[in-house]
């Protein structure tokens, strides 16, 4: 969106620099077959915690559900549901050193991916030298972001380390092994789909139409590829077909993997956004994003992000 960042800044130098709170968006009913747990974790991944909960509750791993994966090197809160019909369990049975249970209740339905309303972020950039000489400009850019949003790219987390998820997707596509969305291919399907969306968004950004609804659009949007007829028509359909012309094998694989054609907004609009300077070279930002959106795409509009290597003891 903006021509340049304001230089390099360190992010995630410690888990407390990247705090995420899941916004469920509804109140559990307090009754039903599913035990809902609100959990805080530090430097633990979601799948690991889900496995621990299954062990502690004495249920199958498949009976533990959650809305989405939360970053490991972070401090996060999120909800889990445990399918436990006709069984009571005490809060003390679910204690573990790798996480803290903040509350427990019940609900009539289990949690599903993407079911939550969004996430609340509190992030700290460190060693951000530009704050000394350019704080007024950074403040102005953040004000513009809060007012108008940024391009709604899928962040690099979706594509894995060194784009490994895309490499794996290409391998599976070449071997025709994505049909039916089985055998744990969901992560790679999602990465392929996200990559195609990012290509279309990049073209709209280049043409300065990413924030403008084109004829036939209610709002600027891009394709999440799958089977079914695209909602795009006319010049917009032609644009997307041209961008994805060299990716027809990926489009074909996604169409035959059980995914339905969908649209995703091109504009990422943060809510309740605020920021403050903590020190001469430290900046704290807080904001809320809807589910499936990436905080790092906002940070990259002001800084080149550098993450220090973490020593594994």
Q: How would you sum up this structure, described in words?
A:
The chain has 313 residues and is α+β, with helices and mostly antiparallel strands. It folds into three domains: 8-16 and 118-149 and 269-306, TruD, catalytic domain (Pseudouridine synthase, 2-Layer Sandwich); 26-107, 2-Layer Sandwich (Pseudouridine synthase); 150-268, Pseudouridine synthase (2-Layer Sandwich). It is 27% helix and 26% strand. The chain has seven helices and 14 strands. The longest helix is centred in the middle third of the chain and has 21 residues, at 186-206. The protein is globular, with a radius of gyration of 21 Å.
Summarize the structure.
With 313 residues, the chain is of the alpha+beta class. The protein has 7 helices and 14 strands. The longest helix has 21 residues, at 186-206.
Write the layout of secondary structure elements.
Elements (H helix, E strand, L loop, with lengths): L7 E4 L6 E6 L10 E9 L3 H12 L6 E3 L8 E9 L15 E9 L10 E9 L3 H19 L1 E2 L12 H11 L11 H21 L14 E4 L9 H10 L4 H8 L6 E4 L1 E2 L2 E9 L2 E9 L5 H4 L4 E3 L7
Parallel strand pairs: 1-14, 2-5
Antiparallel strand pairs: 1-7, 2-7, 3-5, 3-6, 4-5, 7-13, 8-11, 9-10, 12-13
Helix pairs in contact: 3-4
Number of strands: 14
Q: In terms of per-residue confidence, which ranges show pLDDT below 50 for 5 or more consecutive residues?
A: none
| The CATH fourth-level homologous superfamily of the largest domain | TruD, insertion domain
CATH architecture of the largest domain: 2-Layer Sandwich
CATH class annotation of the largest domain: Alpha Beta
Could you estimate the helical fraction of the residues in percent? 25-40%
Reported for the largest beta sheet, the result is: 10 strands, mixed
Q: What is the percentage of strand-forming residues?
A: 25-35%
Structural class: alpha+beta
What spatial form do the alpha-carbon principal axes imply?
A: globular
Radius of gyration: 21 Å
Strand/helix succession: EEEHEEEEHEHHEHHEEEEHE
- State mean pLDDT (0 to 100 scale): 93
Oligomer: single chain
Ends distance: 40 Å
Counting structural domains, the number is 3
């Amino acid at each position: 969106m903006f021509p340049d960042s304001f230089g390099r800044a360190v992010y995630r130098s410690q888990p407390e620099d990247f705090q995420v709170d899941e916004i469920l968006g509804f109140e559990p009913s307090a009754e039903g077959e599913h035990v809902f747990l609100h959990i805080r974790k530090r430097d633990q991944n979601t799948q690991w915690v889900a496995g621990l909960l299954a062990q502690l509750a004495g249920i199958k791993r498949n009976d533990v559900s959650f809305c989405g994966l939360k970053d490991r090197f972070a401090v996060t809160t999120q909800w889990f549901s445990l399918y436990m019909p006709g069984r009571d369990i005490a809060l003390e049975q679910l204690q573990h050193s790798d996480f803290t249970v903040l509350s427990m209740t019940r609900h009539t339905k289990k949690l599903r991916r993407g079911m939550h309303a969004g996430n609340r972020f509190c992030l700290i950039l460190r060693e951000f030298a530009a704050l000394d000489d350019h704080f007024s400009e950074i403040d102005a850019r953040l004000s513009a972001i809060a007012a108008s949003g940024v391009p709604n790219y899928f962040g690099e987390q979706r594509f894995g380390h060194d784009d490994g998820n895309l490499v794996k997707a290409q391998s599976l596509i070449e071997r025709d092994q994505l049909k039916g969305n089985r055998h744990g291919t969901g992560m790679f399907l999602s990465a392929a789909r996200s990559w195609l969306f990012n290509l279309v968004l990049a073209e709209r950004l280049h043409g300065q139409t990413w924030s403008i609804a084109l004829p036939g659009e209610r709002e600027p949007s891009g394709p999440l590829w799958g089977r079914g007829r695209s909602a795009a028509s006319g010049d917009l359909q032609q644009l997307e077909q041209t961008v994805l012309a060299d990716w027809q094998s990926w489009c074909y694989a996604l169409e035959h993997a059980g995914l339905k054609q969908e649209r995703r907004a091109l504009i990422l609009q943060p809510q309740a956004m605020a920021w403050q300077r903590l020190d001469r070279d430290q900046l704290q930002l807080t904001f809320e994003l809807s589910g499936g959106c990436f905080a790092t795409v906002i940070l990259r509009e002001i800084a080149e992000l550098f993450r220090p290597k973490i020593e594994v003891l």
